[in-house]
């Protein structure tokens, strides 16, 4: 049965309204970044400046060592994304393709960790890293990624289970080991799901504030989120400059989203619930 045209238009109009509401904060941020000081504190509500002040951007980036903070953030985000993707895919392959005693019980235990708030483990984990002498380095922000993530293990397991078992069996008959099957069969077929995991992890690490705040005490190792907080501490309510720095910090995420949008959406939509 064909959907009535008015329902299609109503659905599109609803989506446009919701999209516009979601974009308003970003439009306000960009508009504020281009305003003069007097316009920022104007009693009139204006999203866009009367005359764009492009000088706000070089001024904002000159107040803090933006390039160094961006490099630190990139190091943490890239290694975190690589670690989570690698480790989660290995564990997910074990849960989806290998049969070993207690597999389902261990998987249930893994899923139960998703119910545990991060605030509960924050202090014990900090004590562990302090005992290891890792506080003040990037290790607490990167090394845990190479142990995988419960949510992404679940996501990849569900995706792996949608891949026909016959492909793995055929590879075994050709003499391939489990690592060869994981590397040559599962990973190429799971590129959309792996891209989804990498994108989510990269964005989370790029925007993370609490982790760097807890473990980094040398300002030369600060990430961009800490750099913006330092900007507020040093320069107070210069909101136009703060918004300019925030826009620059957001641009890599937006660019990454547009570059990987097709694969990202495909990974989300193709991840099944077979189990």
Task: Characterize the structure shown.
- With 275 residues, the chain is mainly α.
- It has 2 domains: 1-53; 64-270, MetI-like fold (Orthogonal Bundle), CATH 1.10.3720.
- It is 73% helix and 0% strand.
- The chain has helices at 5-33, 37-40, 56-63, 66-97, 103-112, 118-132, 139-142, 150-160, 165-173, 178-189, 191-207, 210-215, 224-235, 239-259, 261-270.
- The longest helix has 32 residues, at 66-97.
- The chain is globular and about 70 Å long.
- The relative contact order is 0.15.
- The model has no long low-confidence stretch (mean pLDDT 86).
Compressed to H and E, one letter per element, the order equals HHHHHHHHHHHHHHH
Number of domains: 2
Oligomer: single chain
Number of strands: 0
Mean pLDDT: 86
Distance between the termini: 32 Å
Question: Which geometry do the CA atoms define?
Answer: globular
Poorly predicted ranges? none
Write the layout of secondary structure elements.
Elements: H1 5-33, H2 37-40, H3 56-63, H4 66-97, H5 103-112, H6 118-132, H7 139-142, H8 150-160, H9 165-173, H10 178-189, H11 191-207, H12 210-215, H13 224-235, H14 239-259, H15 261-270
Helix pairs in contact: 1-14, 3-14, 4-8, 4-11, 9-10, 11-15, 13-14
